[in-house]
From TrEMBL:
Database matches in NCBIfam families: ABC_perm1
Domain named ABC transmembrane type-1: residues: 26-222
UniProt keyword annotation of Transmembrane helix present: yes
Superkingdom field: Bacteria
Annotated membrane topology: Multi-pass membrane protein
Organism: Geomonas diazotrophica
Organism ancestry: Bacteria, Pseudomonadati, Thermodesulfobacteriota, Desulfuromonadia, Geobacterales
Pfam families (alphabetical): BPD_transp_1
Compartments (UniProt record): Cell membrane; Membrane
InterPro entries xrefs: ABC_perm_TupB-like (IPR049783), MetI-like (IPR000515)
Transmembrane spans: 32-53, 65-86, 98-123, 156-181, 201-222
Family: Belongs to the binding-protein-dependent transport system permease family.
Name this protein carries in UniProt: ABC transporter permease
Amino acid sequence: MDVILEGLTKAFQLLASFDREVLGIALLSLKVSGLATLFSLLIGLSVGTLVALTSFPGKKILVSVVNTGMGLPPVVVGLFVSIMLWRNGPLGYLELLYTPTAIVIAQTVIATPIVMGVTIGAMQNLPASLRLQILALGATRTQLVWMLIKEARLPLMAGVMAGFGGVISEVGASIMVGGNVRGYTRVLTTATVMETGRGNFDMAIALSVILLLFCFAVNYLLTYIQQRERPR
């Protein structure tokens, strides 16, 4: 119990003093996870909508693959991204391994199936007659897709929150492709693991508290946007 209290006190002190190292770690966490969520939204929303609104051979198999990807272990993603970015790998010439960009790539791979899976489910759950009604009003295909996205915005926003939560809290892929380099690729989760390994439980708890506060703040903002115009 004393360790927990010390960790909470340490977290408050770090936040109140605007500790430069901790602030840098926290901002990097938000940056890489925010970019990964944005990229996964762009890919997952567009591809998921396309899959949901079209019929083609093998669609059920593809949806099953996407649903499987929603539970993809981060360490597996980290392994394959590391192989791709390794010096002798297919993308080794880019020299991205152990950089923040590598973490963004790995986290994008983790979050994209989550956003895509939620998008497919949300779009397929809309009434089939809704598409016909929209087209009957003279809407173009682009307008049709946009209106369907607006109708499914509540579950889609939930998918964004799930994607963000999945990447900002993961640790395996970030360590494997980022290397946990101080002042460069160290994020809140990897820093917490490192401090725990050193036996600095008060610091580890402090970093965990800061991570939880960041997660709550971002998800509160997304929830506010989601619930701002609830359908009546």
